[in-house]
Amino acid sequence: MKFLSFLAQYISNPRSVGAVLPSSSYLADKMIESIDFDNAKYILEYGPGTGVFTKKLLQHRNPKTVIVLFENNIEFYKVLEEKYKDVDNLYIYNESAEKVDWYLKKCGIPYVDYVISGLPFASLPKAVSHRILLKTSKILRKNGKFVTFQYTKAMKTFIEQFFSKVDVSIEIRNVPPAMVLCCSLEENLEGTYAI
């Protein structure tokens, strides 16, 4: 998707798009660096937008790994559907990540190894962010990871309510520079939600 199309989506949906520009390749590399691609069975991505992180996930994944994308913006969803229509073990839903548990049950996925998120939690309604983060903490397997990026430190404290460990790194080669949060719940157990 060209820059002007991305900008148009930002202007018409600033709360859900959250940025004027797509994420950089440098940020994408940092977002996926904690993933053990050889052993990951299930990876989710929230808010893939135009697919900058998705591209990296597909480049590195084991072909048997299932990847599920949740994109609430219909225009971005259409772009992703067209771009990845022939890719095996990739499921794309035009839906909010708030419904992640329902869709995992539908797909028969018992737990998740990694969740990569491009959602702008700082601009989403707090109740929506709360539901997404709570459900995410429940679907991750033991030592699974939730990785997100934000443009402000304000969300770190909020996210720490849901994860016992939050490691922070900065990627300055992004416009604007982004803070990457790699979150885990060390006490979590596989399959904590009912199938």
From TrEMBL:
It comes from the Bacteria. One of its GO terms (molecular function) is methyltransferase activity. Keywords: Methyltransferase, RNA-binding, S-adenosyl-L-methionine, Transferase. InterPro entries: KsgA/Erm, SAM-dependent_MTases_sf. Pfam families: RrnaAD (PF00398). The keyword rRNA-binding does not apply. This is Methyltransferase. One of its GO terms (biological process) is methylation.
